[in-house]
Specification:
Residues 11-415 form the Major facilitator superfamily (MFS) profile domain. The chain crosses the membrane at residues 12-34, 72-94, 100-119, 173-191, 212-235, 255-280, 301-321, 327-350, 362-381, 393-412. Belongs to the major facilitator superfamily. Nitrate/nitrite porter (TC 2.A.1.8) family. The chain has helices spanning 8-26, 33-40, 44-53, 58-72, 74-94, 98-108, 114-123, 131-143, 145-156, 169-191, 198-206, 210-217, 220-250, 256-272, 274-287, 299-323, 327-355, 360-371, 373-382, 393-411, 414-417, 430-433. Helix 13 packs antiparallel against helix 20. The chain starts with 7 loop residues before the first helix and ends in a 6-residue tail after the last helix. The protein has a single domain, classed as Growth Hormone, Chain: A (Up-down Bundle), CATH 1.20.1250. 74% of the residues lie in helices and 0% in strands. The protein is globular. With 439 residues, it is mainly α.
């Protein structure tokens, strides 16, 4: 029992605040790449590697913490992550050697694994018919923390920063965000409750076995949603870490605040519009509305598929906007790419807990973890030295997304979709997967 009686709405608020700050501290490096590059002597390609490295620990970390949330409850796991992230963020502020700095920021970047912890926490409190909206609010407002970082941090810790501990703005930003992270860890542990009832908590805990995890991780539904998350959330991660650099380098926009503000328009769209994706998925499921007849009866899947198609189209348009040479065109299309990410992400995580109600943490971990691979790979396309210019990387990324759209079209067919949570890529049976939690 926490310090106050928790309700589903208080739980949603607590999880959203925790994840919003996690996203802010995760991408707190993005507005300061210019200063860090100057101090450590980094090239544009090396900045791209730094942006990519922010995602390296997320796949395994999300898979692990999703399962741990099912096993031990979200509040304890969320608090542990926020605490050590805060400690290493503070350490990165004092790093003088680039190798030490790189490693500490790599650990700070694991703040992104809190996503699946909160997804599991919210799913333990909300009913199936409202899961899309609740998870959309949680993830959408939480993801907007990246925009908060781009908008707030450069203004609070400006280029002329001169504080009591640091004369370098990005070092001060890393130090003080680390302090806040530690305080949030204490608050989450003190206030959070794992589930709305003891019965719900026990049902989830009993499914947190190794065999149960293998079973859910290899179902068709889990695999296709994980792949779809690569090209939606993975794309969002990559753009959050890259766009400020892109607007600065590709359009010779040297003003840190302006470039970061332009980049924040993407993060705002990708974050705050995410509840829209989840809400429409809920509405289509409740009203049993077919919007794509060839996926008849798969109401949530239809909405997800449309979102994925929209992303691919907008990524090609992003290249065209950049090649036009008009910065405003790229900013507007970037906003639309963010809107497409929000649409697809909200739709995907409306499906996850609805499809696997007693294993939401494990499945969210797989989907969220695999999805971050896009955040690792796509920045390497954007800054690839073999491209003629910085605009072409978006089209290269779009081409790699087409096979995922094709896979989605196959799984979302009625004959496959109706068994997507039980049929999968391994021969393990459902009865074998329901082993006790001690296995």
């Amino acid at each position: 029992m926490g310090l106050i009686k928790m309700t589903k709405y208080r739980t949603l608020l607590l999880a959203t605040i925790g994840f919003n700050f996690s996203f802010l501290i995760w991408f707190s490096f993005a507005p300061f790449t210019g200063g860090m590059a100057e101090e450590f002597g980094l090239t544009t390609a090396e900045i791209g590697i730094l942006a990519s490295s922010a995602i390296w620990m997320a796949p395994f970390g999300r898979i692990l913490t999703g399962w741990l949330s099912d096993k031990f409850g979200a509040p304890a796991i969320f608090a542990i992550v926020l605490a050590y992230v805060g400690v290493f963020s503070i350490a990165s502020a004092f790093a003088q050697d680039y190798s030490v700095f790189f490693v500490t920021r790599l650990i700070v970047a694991t703040a992104g694994i809190t996503f699946v912890i909160g997804i599991q926490h919210v799913a333990e409190w909300f009913e199936e018919e409202n899961l899309g909206l609740a998870e959309g609010i949680y993830a959408g407002v939480g993801n907007a923390g990246a925009a908060g970082g781009a908008l707030i941090l450069p203004r609070v810790f400006g280029e002329g920063w001169s504080g009591p501990l640091f004369s370098t703005n990005w070092r001060a930003a890393f130090f003080y965000t680390g302090i806040v992270s530690i305080f949030l860890a204490i608050a989450y542990y003190a206030l959070g409750e794992a589930a709305k009832s003891d019965e719900k908590r026990e049902a989830t805990k009993q499914n947190a076995s190794l065999k149960g995890w293998i079973y859910t991780a290899t179902r068709y539904g889990t695999v296709v949603l994980a792949a779809a998350y690569i090209m939606s959330f993975g794309l969002e991660l990559s753009m959050n870490g890259w766009l400020a650099t892109y607007y600065r380098e590709a359009f010779n926009q040297n003003n840190l605040v302006i470039a970061s503000t332009f980049a924040a328009t993407f993060s705002i769209a990708a974050g705050l519009l995410r509840p829209f994706g989840g809400y429409i998925s809920d509405v289509l499921a409740r009203k049993e509305k077919n919007i794509l007849p060839f996926f008849e009866g798969q109401y949530r899947g239809q909405w997800t598929f449309l979102g994925l198609c929209f992303i691919v189209v907008m990524m090609f348009v992003m290249t065209l906007a950049g090649l036009s040479g008009v910065l405003l065109n790229a900013v507007v299309v970037g906003f639309l790419v963010g809107a497409g990410c929000a649409w697809a992400e909200g739709a995907i995580f409306a499906q996850v807990p609805a499809m696997f109600p007693n294993s939401s943490g494990a499945v969210a971990g797989v989907v969220g973890g695999v999805g971050t691979v896009g955040g690792i790979v796509y920045p390497l396309f954007y800054s690839a030295p073999w491209l003629a210019n910085l605009h072409l990387g978006y089209s290269v990324a779009a081409l790699t997304m087409i096979p995922i759209v094709v896979l989605s079209a196959w799984v979302f067919r009625p004959e496959i979709a109706t068994v997507a949570n039980t049929a999968g890529f391994t021969g393990i049976s459902e009865s074998e997967s329901t082993a006790t939690a001690d296995d």
